[in-house]
Each structure stands twice: as C-alpha cells, then as structure tokens.
Design goal:
With 406 residues, the chain is of the alpha/beta class. It has helices spanning 11-20, 45-50, 117-120, 127-147, 162-182, 206-218, 267-272, 317-337, 372-399; strands at 2-7, 28-34, 38-40, 59-61, 71-75, 78-82, 87-90, 96-97, 100-103, 107-109, 122-123, 154-158, 190-194, 222-224, 227-233, 236-241, 248-253, 256-259, 263-265, 276-277, 280-281, 295-297, 351-355, 361-365, 368-371. The protein has two domains: 2-35 and 76-109 and 264-346, FAD/NAD(P)-binding domain (3-Layer(bba) Sandwich); 117-262, FAD/NAD(P)-binding domain (3-Layer(bba) Sandwich), CATH 3.50.50.100. The chain starts with a strand and ends in a 7-residue tail after the last helix.
Length: 406
C-alpha cells in the first residue's frame, strides 16, 4: 500500500486532500498532519486582528473536509523531515514514513534580523496570532482609561505591503469600537504605517496604486514611506530616512506595534536540507523537489518562477489552490500508472483585489481594474470562491461573504 503524507492544512495542503480523496483507491493511504484541528482563511487574518471578524467566522473544522475512510488526520507539530529515510518526525506521535510527501507547511513572520522585532512586535501569521492582536488592542484601550497616556491609543504597522494595507482598512473599520472602549473619539485612535519603500503596491498599475494610497490617507492614516525600521523597543519604533550615510533617525511611540513587513516559508524546510532560501524552494515543473522526486513543495514553501524567471509568483491563496489541484492530479497519475502528468504546472493569475475595510477595495480582476463598490463585492466573491474550492458548498453557506450591499 502506498502512503501519501500531506503536511499542512492551509489552502494548498487541504486542496490536495480534497481532490485526492476523490481519486485514490483502496491501495493508497492518505495522512494529513496539521498543528490545528481547523483550517482558516489566511486572507482574512487582518479582520480578526482588528476585531471586525471573530476567529470562528474565518475557520472551519478540518474534519469537514477529511473522509476518515480514506484519510487519517493527525493533529500535531512537525518537528523535522528526514529526506534520506523518507520520515516525518512529529512532536507527540510516532514517526511517519511515506512513499510520497506533500510539504505545504505555510509561512512564518520574518523579522529580517531587526533588533527587538521578535520581542516587541506582534506578528500576524496565524489565526492565534491575529486573535492575540485583537486582545492586545482591547487591553490597550482599557489601559488608556486607567493612565490616560495617548501612546496606548497609537498603533504602528510595520510594512505597507498588501497585508499592511488591508490591515489598515480593517483597523479603520474598528476605530469607533476601539474608541468607545477607551472613552475617546475615533480620531484619537492613531494608525501609523512605516514602510521602507517609496514605491508602494507594485503588484498594481501606478494609477491603481495611487488610488489605494490616497484611499488609505483619506482615513487619516499617517503613512511614512522611505523609512527603514532599525529597532523596535517596548512601546517605540526607531526608523531611519534618507541615504544610509547621512540618514535621519526618528522614533514613534505606540503601545501596539504590528509586524507585516514580510514572511518566509516554514523553517522546517531550511532545516531539512532542501536547496531553499528563507524557507522556500524553487520546485520542478511538476512541483517536486529537484533532488527528491517523491517530495512535493507547494503553497508558501514553494517559489514558483514565471516564464520570465525574474522573481517568484506571490504566494497567494489563488496560486496555492492551483498548486494543490495540480499535485492531486499528478499524484493520481503516478499512483495509477507510475508517470507524472505530461503537462507541467502553469499559473495565470485571475487578478488581485485588496480590501481596505469592509466597504472599500481596489484591484484588478479578469484583466479589468476595479475600485469602490464593485471591487469590494468582487473581493468577497473571490473569498467565497476560494472557500468553495476546498470546503465546498456547505462551508460557503456557513462562512461565505454575502454582505454585498452597504
């Protein structure tokens, strides 16, 4: 009996399970491993962090997807991979041996070695981390009531990338609720963003990026660009602007510092001995490791290169779902006739839309630029489509976004 082990129940890993369960026969065993017993929509973490969505709104049990007659689910932490002996080491269960391994272990927040980030900034890479940010914000509002120190009302977001901009929108939506808790006006809740680049949102056209930046500024957000964060202390961010030789150093006081500057793939990937950079591997045309053809690398641990070979595709839910479906089909082919699919993995983005709160969005979909209400509705339909592709109709009806009119 062939044993296929899937590590990670994010978009990519759970999609493999969802598709492969339809194709495998009695001579194939599937095992899924994840640290949690739930799948969460990672694209919505910013809403949980701001408190505009509850954790249960963006998650559902892995058991809703897994068929016990076909797949064994193990809730545990992956601690190491032994590629030579085809073994997965777990924290609380016996080692797993595999014939085929699918690594979809997701991402972790990246501090880039900046002093104080790990100790004093709040990451937003998991559902638990997003909920921790929300609880921290509530605690800071309560503390302001006690000490009347404005720094408890200040929020600093490190990074004005896609995630940072979406978080700004969600926090703006939450402003009144936070202000009511602190006993202040919404305008007293100060949202600041510090970004090293001066060219923001490069995934969009210059015109669309400018629209998004102006939208964020219209919320009264303090957007500081060309500013390199050099240190994070308890309640303070230090940054520099200008040429390194004569840079001007400034500080910003805030009791809430949220880190969205970047992510890397799971450290398990680097530790396993793959040819990786920051936890990401450039896979073969069939999404396997170039040195281990029975090991697939998908989702956030895969750096899939476009035809021009300049830089990897962004790690979005859209490409993760595409990888998951391809790998399921490729595995089904190999398990049936011992051969890879004749066609390699290819990817064509259907577009990218950024939400800036519940009622504002902008982006590109199906070759057209969208903004305002149309973009907001499109974003929610994209979320529903992703939910359907893994969780099916039942999860869409339970967790889908149908608040299209506002």
């Amino acid at each position: 009996m062939k044993h296929v082990v899937i590590l990670g129940a994010g978009y990519a890993g759970l999609k493999v399970v969802h598709e492969l369960q339809k194709r495998v026969k009695g001579d194939v065993k599937l095992t899924l491993v994840d640290r949690n017993n739930y799948h969460y929509e990672a694209t919505d973490l910013h809403e949980v962090a701001a408190g505009t969505k509850k954790p249960s709104d963006i998650s559902y049990p892995i058991a809703d997807v897994v068929k016990p007659s076909v797949t064994t689910f193990i809730q545990d932490e992956v601690t190491a991979l032994d590629l030579a002996n085809q073994t997965v080491k777990l924290a609380d269960h016996k080692d797993l041996t595999y014939d085929y391994l699918v690594c979809a272990l997701g991402f972790v927040s990246e501090s880039f070695g900046i002093p104080g980030v790990d100790e004093h900034a709040l990451p937003m890479a998991t559902l638990k981390e997003a909920e921790a940010i929300h609880q921290h914000l509530l605690a800071m509002m309560d503390k302001y009531q006690e000490v009347q120190d404005p720094s408890y009302l200040n929020i600093v977001i490190g990074g004005a990338g896609f995630t940072g901009i979406e978080l700004v929108g969600a926090l703006n939506d939450a402003r009144k609720t936070l202000a009511d808790r602190a006993g202040v006006q919404p305008s007293d809740i100060k949202i600041n963003v510090i970004e090293a680049s001066t060219h923001l949102l490069p995934m969009f056209s210059e015109k669309l990026a400018t629209y998004g930046i102006n939208l964020v500024k219209s919320f009264g957000v303090n957007l500081v660009t060309g500013a390199r964060i050099t240190k994070v202390d308890d309640g303070q961010v230090e940054f520099q602007q200008g040429d390194p030789e004569d840079a001007v150093t400034s500080t910003m006081e805030a009791k809430t510092i949220i880190w969205t500057t970047g992510v890397s793939g799971s450290p398990i990937i680097d530790e396993a001995g793959f040819s990786a950079r920051r936890g990401r591997v450039i896979p073969s045309e069939h999404l396997t490791d170039n040195d281990h053809d029975n090991v697939y690398l998908i989702g956030d641990v895969a750096a899939v290169m476009p035809p021009d070979g300049n830089r990897p595709y962004p790690t979005t839910a859209q490409i993760a779902l595409g990888m998951g479906k391809y790998v399921a089909n490729d595995l089904a082919s190999r398990l049936t006739n011992g051969q890879h699919l004749t066609t390699p993995f290819t990817y064509k983005s259907l577009g990218t839309v950024a939400s800036v709160g519940n009622t504002h969005a902008f982006g590109e979909a199906m070759g057209h630029e969208v903004r305002g209400y149309m973009a907001s509705a499109t974003k929610k339909m994209i979320a529903n489509e992703s939910l359907f592709r893994v969780g099916g109709f039942r999860e869409v009806m339970k967790k889908g976004r149908f608040d299209l009119y506002h």
